[in-house]
């Protein structure tokens, strides 16, 4: 028996990132596959909880679609962004949240939310030089749980890292390094 014949919204893997360019926030998102998506709404927040719409973009409804929006009204300090996919029948789907800091010239990394809930974490790279970086996550026993490389174009961006499905709750240390720089941050996995 079928009670609802509406097809679910199909916007698979909305990957969002935010970066700084000339004191503006650039929000880029990629969707692996789209079907019956009407449009995307870019939402922004100053606290990471209360979001409001700042832009609408029509969907391409094809594989591997890439979109971009520049927020010239981004405030100094932390700015949070998410993408809301709206289907032709009104169904809604959200991306993860991307964070970018405007006006901060310090180099470093930060993780949010911290404690990490679920199997993904957002890592903000702030004012790092362009180059190849190695990303390593260590558990409390010093065992490596993630090892991957990251090509960074320079400046500030937020990237999402997927953790292993079998990751245990606890305290972890994230290390991001290049040939001449090392950045560390502690995090809790719930």
Description:
With about 190 residues, the chain is mostly beta strands. About 0% of the residues lie in helices and about 65% in strands. The strands form 4 sheets. Strands 3, 4, 6, 7 and 8 form a 5-stranded antiparallel sheet that branches. Strand 14 and strand 15 form a beta hairpin. Residues about 1-10 have low confidence and may be disordered.
How would you concisely characterize the structure shown here?
Helices cover 0% and strands 64% of the residues.
Keywords:
190 residues; mainly beta; five-stranded antiparallel beta sheet; four-stranded antiparallel beta sheet; 15 strands
Indicate the topology.
Elements: E1 10-21, E2 24-35, E3 37-45, E4 52-58, E5 65-71, E6 77-87, E7 92-94, E8 98-102, E9 108-112, E10 120-128, E11 131-138, E12 144-152, E13 155-162, E14 170-177, E15 182-189
Antiparallel strand pairs: 1-2, 2-5, 3-4, 3-6, 6-7, 6-8, 9-10, 10-13, 11-12, 11-14, 14-15
Share of β-strand residues: over 45%
> How would a textbook summarize the main sheet?
5 strands, antiparallel
Q: Which class of secondary structure composition applies to the elements?
A: mainly beta
Helical segment tally? 0
Order of helices and strands: EEEEEEEEEEEEEEE
Distance between the termini: 39 Å
> Using DSSP, what is the number of strands?
15
Helix percentage: under 10%
Question: What's the overall geometry?
Answer: globular
Radius of gyration (Å): 18 Å
Average per-residue pLDDT, rounded, comes to: 87
Uncertain stretches of 5 or more adjacent residues: 1-8
